[in-house]
From TrEMBL:
Species classification: Bacteria, Pseudomonadati, Pseudomonadota, Alphaproteobacteria, Hyphomicrobiales
Keyword list, A-Z: Membrane, Transmembrane, Transmembrane helix
Protein name as annotated: VanZ family protein
Source organism superkingdom: Bacteria
Entry keyword Transmembrane helix: yes
Segments crossing the lipid bilayer: 6-25, 65-85, 97-118
């Protein structure tokens, strides 16, 4: 079980770094590096990224759910604020942050379901 916890926690950190890089690189650099991943719908990209983070975080640290939710909510807000700065020069959109929060909620439901199934098997 220890390996599982370390693997999930590591996956969370790697995913968080990837989300931050994709969210905070200015658009010309993203296009220059050929990053064209995700869905055509920006809100779906936000929701899926934060759902993935919520699932990994909740499975990696099941006793820290409240801290995880606060952390991810603040990360989403910080991304939006930074995207609105001249340095990043992308769009600050409160609805992107709302999509992040919806993704967090959905990810928690998935993680709780996985934990429930795992407890019933064990």
């Amino acid at each position: 079980m220890k390996f599982y916890s370390v693997a999930i926690s590591t996956a969370f950190v790697v995913t968080l770094v990837a989300v931050l890089v994709l969210a905070l690189l200015p658009m010309p650099e993203l296009q220059e590096f050929g990053f064209d991943i995700g869905f055509d719908n920006d809100k779906l990209n936000h929701a899926s990224a934060f759902a993935t983070l919520a699932v990994l975080g909740a499975l990696g640290w099941p006793r820290r759910i409240v801290t995880l939710v606060i952390f991810l909510t603040l990360v989403g807000a910080a991304i939006e604020i930074l995207q609105g700065t001249p340095l990043i020069d992308r769009d600050l959109d409160v609805f992107d942050w709302a999509a992040d929060c919806i993704g967090i909620a959905g990810g928690l439901v998935v993680a709780m379901s996985i934990n429930w199934v795992m407890r019933r098997k064990g």
